[in-house]
UniProtKB/TrEMBL annotation:
Pfam families per the UniProt record, alphabetical: Cellulase, Por_Secre_tail
Keywords, sorted A to Z: Glycosidase, Hydrolase, Signal
Domain called Secretion system C-terminal sorting: residue spans: 399-463
Keyword Disulfide bond: no
Family, similarity comment: Belongs to the glycosyl hydrolase 5 (cellulase A) family.
Gene3D superfamilies: Glycosidases
Keyword set includes Signal: yes
A single BP term in Gene Ontology: glucan catabolic process
Domain Glycoside hydrolase family: 90-332
Record-given protein name: Mannan endo-1,4-beta-mannosidase
Any GO molecular function: hydrolase activity, hydrolyzing O-glycosyl compounds
InterPro entries cross-referenced by the UniProt entry: GH (IPR017853), Glyco_hydro_5 (IPR001547), Secre_tail (IPR026444)
Amino acid sequence: MGLGWSLDLSEKLILTNTKISIMKNYSTKKLQGFSIFLLVLSTFGLAQYPNSLLTVDGKSLKDDCGETIILKGLNHGNIYDVSDFGVGEIAEIEKTGSNAVRLVVDREYCTFPPPNYTCVEVPTTAAQLTTMIEATLANNMIPIVELHDFTGSANPMADLTTAANWWVQPEILHVLKTHQKYLILNIANEPSSSNYPPTAGEQTTYYEANVAAINILRNAGLDCPIMIDGMHWGKDHRFFVNHGADLMAADPLHKLIFSVHTYWPAGGNAVQVSDAQMTQYMTALASVNAPIVLGEIAHDETQGNNVVPINYELLLTLSAQYNFGYLIWWWGRIEPGSTSPLYITTNGLAANLTADGQVFINTHPNAVSTTSIRPYKLINGECDGMSIDENQEIEMISIYPNPFKDVLNIDSKVNVLNVEIYGADGKKLIQSKEKSINTQHLSGGIYFVRIQTDKGIETFKIIKK
C-alpha cells in the first residue's frame, strides 16, 4: 500500500466489523508487529469506525431513530481540572437531567509540578480526550468537544484551519471517530473578534474560514454534526441569519448546528442588549433553517472586574418558544478554592446549586431538570419501538397533576390502550391500562409516561415530588 514497511504474518488474519483476530499461536515479536499493523490501520483510516447516529433535519437535530434532540445542559472546564479532567463533575452534572455537556479542551494545559507549583504547559493527549468523552457518554449525555485556544481570534481563516488540523491529527482523529455515534464537534470556541455588528467583509471572511475548516474535517472522514460559533466572541446572531443557509449548503453532509453565546446584558461597557432587542434577535434566529443552540448562556457577564446581569430568564423563555437548545456557562469545580462568578454550583456538586443555578436547573418553566430529554437510544442502544408521533394533537391527552405525588391521572378524548412509565435511565417501571395510576412506590424524580391510544402514541415528561 506504499506505507514503506512490510509485515510477515503467516497466520490467517480474520477481519470483522468489530475485531481483528489471528488464528494459531504467535510469538511476542509478531505480537509487536501486529500492534504496529493495528496502529497503521487506524492511522490511515482502514479501521472500522461507527457512523454518527446524529442527523440534521431542517431546524432539528435527530438520531437515527427519528427522535428529536434539543440540547440542554452545561459547559464544563474539563481541561482546567488536571486531577481527573472533570470526570467527578460530569457525574454531578448527570444528576441535573442534562442531555449534553460541552467539554472545554485546549491543545495544551497547565500542570503544577513541585517544587515551585507554577504552570508548566504540556500537550493534551488523545487518552485525556478519551477520558472526557467516555465519562460523558457513560453518564448518558452527549459530549460536545470544543477547542478553546482561539477565543477572540483576529485571524479566523488561519486559526480555524489550525483548529481543524488539530482535530484531524491521527491520534485525536482516532478518538473522535471511535466515539462519533453520539458526538458533536465544536471546531473552535468564539474564534472571532470582529466588530459588533460585524461588517459584510468580516462576515464573508468568517464564512470562508468555516467552510475551509468544515472541508478539512469532512475530508478526514468525520461525519458527526459540527457546531459553529457566532462572530464577535460568539455573541453575534447576524452571521447565521445572513449566511446560515449558504454555510449549511457548503457542508457536504449538511449537518451543522449554529451556536450563539448570549452574553447580552442591558448594561455594562460592552455589547448592550435590551429585552426588546433580545426578543428581536431570538426571533431572527428562529428564521434560520438549522438547529440553534445558545452555546453559552449565563446569568451574568464578566467585564473586567465588573459583573453585569443578563436577563437569562427571558432567554430561557424564548428558547422554549423557538425550540432552541441551551448550554449553561458553567458548572463549577469540586476542587477546593476554585471560584468564578459564573459558576452555578458552589463546589461542583449538584446538591449545592447557586440561586441562579436553581433557576437554570429546577425552577424556570424551561429548566434543565424538567425539560431535558435524553435520547432513548443513547441509553438503551436501540430505538424504543414507540416513537413520539409529533403530528398527534397533544391537547387530546392531559396528564395531571404534574408534578405528581402518589397518583397520576390521565384525561383523554381518545381511547387509551396502554400506559407505560419509564425512569430517566430508560427502564420500564409501570405498565397499566388504567387512567388513574398508583405511583406511591416511585421515588421522587423525573419519569416519562408513554400513552398508546387508538390514534397513536404520545410521550410526556413527568415529575414526582
